[in-house]
Amino acid sequence: MSEFHVPADVPDELIETYLENMRAATAGTGSMNLFACDQKIEHLNDDFYDGEETIPRSSNDPAHLFEIGAQTHEAGTLGVLAGQLGLISMYARDHPELPYLVKLNSKSHMVKTGQRDPISQALWDMDDVMSLVHNGINVVGIGYTVYIGSEFEHEMLTEAAQFIRQAHEQGMISVVWMYPRGKAVPNEKDPQLIAGAAGVAGCLGADFAKVNYPEAWEGMTQPESFRIAVEAAGRTGIICSGGGSLPPREFLQRLHDQINISGCRGAATGRNIHQKPTESAVSMTAACHAIICEGASVDEAMAIFEAQ
Prior knowledge:
By secondary structure, this protein is α/β, with parallel strands linked by helices.
């Protein structure tokens, strides 16, 4: 019996490949410390340079992301580095050994919901992903964003389902970004909607789903409320968006609650890592790994972060 669940659409002869990719993506634990490097399209340059130097200037250069990835992988504290195929392809020959999650679709934040419901369709396909693999790049899985509730959700759900199936056929894992968004969505953080999005991810057959941290149900704390979404996803592991930059202890406390109270199987962190100088970013990744994969307390994680 495998230590991890293997979906039935993974070919029998590729089960060990799937398990190797799952181990690589989760540091052998089944819980994912995902370094989100897809925001150069999603947020344009807003999270990388602010004109006031409150974000270190080093964050403006995409090479910063891959240097963080290289150092954390060497230290054993990286799960996967997630980014668009084009961005990965520009830097991956420098760091072919990093576990990569290739993001297949993206959109900017320029067009608002008041103008048009969001749609984000694929920019690449699995043949493009496999071209990286054939060139010796350690691609362990694919990622795709679905805006559930958009009038265009069917197009995104269809593509996501096909890519999940194709990834499994190659022995790769899949991660979906599941965000309620559109004119039909009055509150993107509604706990019932977040739980619904998590359940959709399970129906698509995704191995992991990244969702936003929901608001609290009446009579529950926020992490208790988030557990409803984790349960609704079934065998699909829920990982929580890292959100905007927070003070380190506040961020790590929230992460600890999500793992230990909500039952999340990881987190996807971008700004709380890359909006720091490299040394601090590497230390924060290690602190996240300690909570997600090693059961560390907040005090223990803070000690790791402060020991930089």
